[in-house]
Amino acid sequence: MVRIAVATDDGKSISDGHFAHAKKYVIYELSEDTKDIRLVESRDNPPLGNIPDTDDPAVIHESLSRSGIPIHGIAKYQWLHENALRDVDAVIASGACETSYEYFTSMGVQLFFVEPGTPPIDTLIEQLRNAAKEEDIK
Q: Sheet containing 2-8: which strands, arranged edge to edge?
């Protein structure tokens, strides 16, 4: 099984911005045998999902220091990995910073980027399902 996390704010579309600040992750499993993709669960991302996706250090520092989460850097992404994305093999999102990209890929998690909001997650999953089945034919 391959576990895929889709970064979203509304459960219907890809969230805009850094995947660490998505309000939730919709988790899917891809069966390597049947090539089917099924919804497993939806995971909330508090408190990171409630912090503005901004480069303003004062905003980030205040929000994260109240939550007890590391403020930035590798420690922040270790926390996210251990607490929200511990069992995923891939993340689909609209963006990431270089530090999060390097951390997650070093942990064996693949990151895939799409335009925020489009396609809707249902359409994206159907495209993945079709691509997986087509790949099996070749």
A: 37-44, 24-30, 2-8, 90-93, 110-113
Q: Residue 72 in contact with residue 78, Cβ under 8 Å?
A: no
pLDDT in tens, 37-57: 999 999 998 777 766 656 666
The rounded distance, in Å, linking the Cα atoms of 93 and 106 is 17
pTM of the shown model? 0.86
Check if the beta carbon of residue 77 is closer than 8 Å to that of residue 100.
yes
Give residue 80's Cα distance to chain centre: 10
Cα 21 from Cα 44, distance rounded (Å): 11
